[in-house]
Write a structure and sequence with these properties.
heterotrimer; A alpha/beta (391); B mainly alpha (192); C mainly alpha (51); B: 192 residues; mainly alpha; globular; C: 51 residues; 2 helices; 80% helix
């Protein structure tokens, strides 16, 4: 081998080694994130943990299969289905649902909770949006670590995307990427793309269990008009309105009611009500981290919601929520979700006393803001092994 | 059968099937491996641009630069914004390619919606402006591809200059669609 | 895994193969050598089912 060829191969080898190192370092982090198991400590109210694939067989053996927690009360009553992390980049939903799972005691009625509704999305990262891979919530026993996910399911689990997503069964044309968004694939079908099987499984739960209310918990940007609200179709609007008025009067936070548009298909607050007897509600709390005009996308911004750009835009009246130097902390968002869910159940029970839902041991807004979110999580190292579910 | 039982092929597979069919029915013998390697070599600058733009977008977001650009666009006074869209949108595409829509498009459309403009028509107007940037350096993805495929031999700027008439027409139509989007709402109803 | 997804992995492997072949055969342009490896990164991560 002459000198020139030898030099050439040396250069190629160096490039190859550098690129391999970059790929291994980056790839390992992504692989670890995808397979990171988050421990959930089952609270005193949990009576059964099932898999969504038991209701939608097409999910068996896939990353879209997810844990379903049943909290059945001592007495019969109304049934509430709570979904969190439909969009896995809106973590206040997950945290609120975990507070219910780890603490709630149901006296009357049943809660059915899916904390990672789009499990595939919770194991996905968002290209180009600079999300941290994890975030941590401080607790009395240390920091509890969570995966930060993406809005849409991972292409490793569902691929390819269509040119245009034709919604089943209405044939409305939606964006191609919405085929992996579980808030566009309702009501779903058993043999459709993977995310349609997820929503189909949820519909099966609601039909088989005769669920009375379904609550889909989300977060939305401060620059997005539909934020800090309860979205409800006609059949749910009365309870939503009473809930909104009550939380404003008694707990001092805003959660106005938005009407579910009948022309926009695929969303939980539309399709659940149209294809079952269940009353759907979709909750939104502001999440400044998702806004485009923010500073660096850090875990700190995710947790405290404080950003100088958003503060400036707020003073110019360009945000849809009130925003000041205190930002929008995770405590405020999670507290709002807990209070609104509890109030929805209370208003439902007032309207239909024969289907009363009584839940205790779940904090409301003021308590979560005062104590912090981590206060309500239990140490998995101290719990019995059979009381810890690894998600 | 249509549309729900039709399998989702995806754009890439549709192109592969088309290429395979073209190969099978070609009257001339095509050395597929040599052709594939040559295509990869010719497309390398464009493929690398796509990868690098993605990396750039990620770093810009992590560091807050992207947020700063979004903030600057949203904070611009309205009249100045409408006038400067003719420049900002194509230039953002020229620098960031597909990243321009995420960085500027999302907050811009929400802002335009909040002041009473029709979001769908405004997006349609912006969709006329963004592809103009696919001809602009430094990325000039579609421009470079067009020059490559048509085997145009002259300087790139000469090619770009010759597009000034359609460029101007598209720019004017796009800007007017954005400004008068509320009045053009009937187009959305008509298309459904 | 559905058949169409498997076909996409085959397509990715084919493109990755072409890039590797070109990288090995490239003798003159150092920039191109680097770019071949750069463009390979997302393809390899997908084939290995990392991202």
């Amino acid at each position: 081998m002459d000198n020139k060829t030898s030099r050439l191969w040396t250069v190629k080898l160096i490039f190859l080694l550098v690129m391999t190192a970059i790929m291994v370092i980056g790839g390992l982090q992504l692989y670890t994130h995808r397979h990171y198991k988050m421990p959930i400590v089952i609270g005193p109210g949990v009576t059964k943990v099932a898999q969504l694939s038991e209701f939608s067989e097409g999910l068996k053996g896939t990353m879209a299969d997810t844990d379903v927690f049943f909290l059945e009360g001592k007495e019969e009553g109304g049934k509430v289905f709570i979904m969190a992390n439909t969009h896995a980049n809106e973590p206040s939903a997950l945290l609120a649902s975990l507070i219910f799972i780890e603490n709630a005691v149901v006296e009357k009625g049943t809660l059915i909770i899916i904390p990672q509704f789009n499990n595939s999305a919770s194991r996905n990262t968002r290209p180009g949006d600079g999300y941290p891979l994890y975030f941590e919530i401080p607790t009395e026993w240390g920091a509890k670590k969570f995966r930060m996910g993406n809005r849409d399911a991972s292409p490793l689990d569902q691929w390819p995307d269509p040119d245009v997503y034709i919604h089943y069964p209405d044939k409305q044309l939606l964006s191609f990427i919405d085929v992996r968004n579980t808030n566009r694939t309702w009501p779903g079908r058993a043999n459709g793309p993977l995310m349609e099987r997820v929503t189909h499984g949820a519909m099966q739960i609601m039909r088989e269990e005769s669920v009375d209310m379904a609550v889909d918990i989300h977060g939305a940007e401060t620059m997005f008009p539909v934020t800090n609200c309860i979205v409800a179709p006609d059949k749910s609007v009365r309870i939503a309105t009473m809930t909104s008025l009550t939380v404003k009067a008694r707990e001092g936070f805003e959660s106005h009611v938005e009407s579910s548009p009948s022309g926009f298909r695929g969303l939980s607050h539309r399709e659940i009500g149209d294809y079952s007897e269940t009353m759907p509600f979709l909750l939104e709390a502001p999440i400044p981290f998702l806004d485009q005009p923010t500073g660096p996308k850090t875990a700190k911004l995710l947790l405290d919601g404080k950003d100088p750009f958003l503060l400036s835009l707020s003073k110019k009246g360009k945000l849809f929520v009130s925003y000041d130097e205190t930002g929008w902390s995770m405590e405020k968002r999670v507290g709002q979700h807990c209070s609104v869910v509890l109030e929805l159940m209370r208003q439902f029970s007032r309207r239909l006393p024969e289907k009363k839902i009584e839940v205790r041991n779940v904090p409301r807004y003021a308590e979560v803001v005062k104590n912090g979110v981590g206060y309500y999580f239990h140490d998995p190292k101290k719990a019995d092994k059979d009381k810890v579910v690894l998600n | 059968m249509w549309p729900f039982s039709t399998p989702i092929l995806g754009l890439a597979l549709e192109f592969v099937i088309a290429a395979l069919v073209a190969w099978l029915v070609s009257p001339k013998k095509i050395k597929i491996l040599a052709l594939s390697r040559d295509t990869m070599r010719r497309l390398l600058p464009l493929l690398a641009t796509m990868v690098v733009v993605g990396m750039l977008q990620q770093i810009m977001t992590v560091t807050g630069v992207r947020g700063m650009i979004s903030f600057a666009v949203i904070s611009t006074p309205l009249i100045l914004l409408f006038i400067s869209l003719a420049l900002i949108i194509p230039v953002s595409e020229g620098v960031l390619t597909y990243g321009g829509a995420a960085i500027i498009g999302i907050p811009l459309v929400w802002f335009l919606d909040s002041i009473g403009l029709h979001a769908t028509v405004a997006i349609a107007g912006l969709s006329l402006l963004w592809p103009l940037g696919d001809g602009l350096p430094p990325t000039a993805l579609i421009g470079r591809l067009s020059v490559m495929v048509s085997e145009y031999k002259g300087p790139y700027w000469t090619f770009l200059r010759s597009t000034w008439v359609p460029w101007l027409v598209i720019t004017v139509v796009g800007i007017l669609m954005i400004i008068f989007s509320a009045r053009l709402e009937f187009l959305v109803r008509w298309s459904m | 895994m559905p058949l169409i997804m498997i076909i996409y992995y085959v397509i990715s492997a084919f493109i990755a193969g072409m890039l590797v072949w070109n990288f090995i055969r490239e003798k003159k342009n150092v920039n191109d050598m680097l770019l071949y490896l750069l463009v390979l990164i997302p393809l390899v991560l997908r084939i290995l089912r990392v991202k």
